[in-house]
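Recap slide: Demethylmenaquinone methyltransferase, sequence and predicted structure.
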Amino acid sequence: MSVVPYKEKNTGKKQQVAEMFNNISKKYDFLNHFLSLGIDILWRKKAIKYLKKDQPKYILDIATGTGDFAIEALALKPEKVVGVDISEGMLTVGKEKMKRRGLDNIIDLQLGDSEKLLFEDNTFDAIIVSFGVRNFEDLEKGLKDMNRVLKKGGKAVILEFSKPTKFPFKQLYNFYFKAILPKIGRLISKDSSAYTYLPESVDAFPDGDKFLRVLENAGFKDNKCKPLTFGISSIYIGQK
């Protein structure tokens, strides 16, 4: 049984994740940066650097949310970044952000299912995802569809939470992530489930070597894992 935000409901994970992000969309950016002490911004910058030598011109940002990773990808000087997400609420916030910053001509945010991408095969030079793949209803199916729309030789760069393993950071992290973070998230977002789902979804995610095997099964090769900040998160790089 997959981890879902609203255990009392009978809807599938995909629908529940969309509902959850719709509920917290207006507070999402603030909470993201506040709860991570701004480290998430540095993680995104570091992840994008793995595409620097490839200089991709057409980039797909999956589970784009409010578009922060898409904005970070502009450091690569692409011609176009397309962001896809299943949450209308997150996209509304993201589109307002792009208009405010004058980026809506280069960043195109679209409603869409990350596991059923509405793009032709071999369309994108690179695919990026930040903190999105663990929310997939069918992880391998979503990764296979990413591989399908990626050009041969193109790279996928995936930033995702992982689980620290070393003492004492593992214990401190678990206390913060499971006892403190949900309370702050609930208080600010007014959604009682969203920030309980976060640590539960991270616990259930096959991080590290396990995820590298899932990437391989989905058709990616030369897969690498780069742990960040004592293993709180990791950057995964795979090539088609």
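Residues 27 and 189 are 6 Å apart (CA to CA).
The first helix runs from residue 13 to 35.
(End of recap.)
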